[in-house]
Amino acid sequence: AEPRTPESVPPALCCFSSCSSWLPQRVPLRGSHWQSSLLGFRTSLPVRAQPKKKKKVDVKKEQAQKERMKKKLKKLERAAPELIPIEDFITPLKYTESSRSRSLPDLSPEESERRVLLLKKWCVFKQKQDEAEKKAIKALVESQQEALKELQLESEELYQAAILRDEGLFPFEREGPTYTPPLPGYDPPEGKCVDITKVYTQ
Amino acid sequence: DALLASHRSYRSRPTHGIGRFKYLLPKEAPKRRKEKVQMKEISAGTEYQYGDINIQMTSYDLCLVEHFAQYVHRLCNRLSIRVNESYAMPTKTNEVLFLEERGSKMQLDAVLTTHQRVVQIRGLSSTFAPILLEIIQSSQPEGVHLLMKQHTEADFKSRLKARPELEELLAEMS
């Protein structure tokens, strides 16, 4: 805050010099408008408190803290991430009690005979269903291959374009069929859904 | 054991190593350490083949969704489509509350559990994809919601446990 040359002194200083007559002599005049404190050049108020804490200790402390955090981070990162346990596969303890066993009644020979014959009919039914599915798949694939062959004979360009994968196919979403369609004009009661899934943290 | 702890070997003696027997036992396989859960590479697929695709089946009914997942898995095996993984996503529990007719209190209606199974396939050819979709749709059971999408890292991360401490530290560091 050295006093500036007279050329750079703004005209405001002129009024300072003019009203300097009513100022008490004890207060030192401000050398220039750059010197913001009333004290002289390179002086400061005497402080009775502790001497100012040196910056070195702070830097060291900060560095030590940072290192500690880095160590903690490394330790956590080294631990492998775990999969969330699936509640479906954990049998609740109340089902493992021995008092839950029940004794089944004895079957008569006619009943067991009926059951075996029913089982055989079910096997045959399922086999027919499976075969029908396999036939359907085969028919679909064959007809597709035939169509592609014809297309290739027709034009090579279109065939190449048809072979390429469809980007718009995925994502594909479909709701399962329902037993009954939604009722028209049904007014459901007011309510809300609360998610109470257990949140697992590592 | 006393045998192993003994430091008196007397290698010069003819009876050295007289009590050894472990070399006679059959070699037991080394103990498998817990395998780290690591993400497998996600293939992008070529022009004529799709990469990793997730077939996600969601429903409130556990048995239906399990059996459907098994059916889809067996179907892919039969059609020689490579199945990478077949896993279950964690179950979500929802509490349904409804407002009573005469009253302001919410009453508990039911507790519903949503189950999800995922079958991950790779290398599905572009010509066969619509056929597979058709077959799966025709055998879709009631109430089972089907979703087929590309596999991403975010899908894998959703299976892992949340680590709030790690995230906190990372946020503090940066």
Automatic annotation (TrEMBL), chain A:
Protein's cellular compartments: Mitochondrion
Primary site of residence: mitochondrion
GO CC term (a single one): mitochondrial large ribosomal subunit
Record carries keyword Transit peptide: yes
Region listing for Disordered, in residue ranges: 50-72
Pfam families in the cross-refs: MRP-L28
Alphabetical list of InterPro entries matching this protein: Ribosomal_mL40 (IPR019192), Ribosomal_mL40_metazoa/plant (IPR039145)
Highest taxon listed in the record's lineage: Eukaryota
Alphabetic keyword roster: Coiled coil, Mitochondrion, Ribonucleoprotein, Ribosomal protein, Transit peptide
Coiled coil: 134-161
Similarity comment text for this entry: Belongs to the mitochondrion-specific ribosomal protein mL40 family.
PANTHER family in the cross-refs: 39S RIBOSOMAL PROTEIN L40, MITOCHONDRIAL (PTHR13359), LARGE RIBOSOMAL SUBUNIT PROTEIN ML40 (PTHR13359:SF2)
Name used for this protein in its record: Large ribosomal subunit protein mL40
Lineage, top ranks: Eukaryota, Metazoa, Chordata, Craniata, Vertebrata
Name of the coding gene: Mrpl40
TrEMBL record, chain B:
Small ribosomal subunit protein uS10 domain: residues covered: 54-149
InterPro entries: Ribosomal_mL48, Ribosomal_uS10_dom, Ribosomal_uS10_dom_sf
Gene3D superfamilies: Ribosomal protein S10 domain
Keyword Lyase among record annotations: no
Localization: Mitochondrion
Domain of life: Eukaryota
One Pfam family from the record: Ribosomal_S10
GO cellular component, one term: ribonucleoprotein complex
Keyword Lipid metabolism tagged: no
Keyword annotations from UniProtKB, A to Z: Mitochondrion, Ribonucleoprotein, Ribosomal protein, Transit peptide
Broad class of the protein's primary localization: mitochondrion
Family: Belongs to the mitochondrion-specific ribosomal protein mL48 family.
Protein name: Large ribosomal subunit protein mL48
Organism: Loxia curvirostra
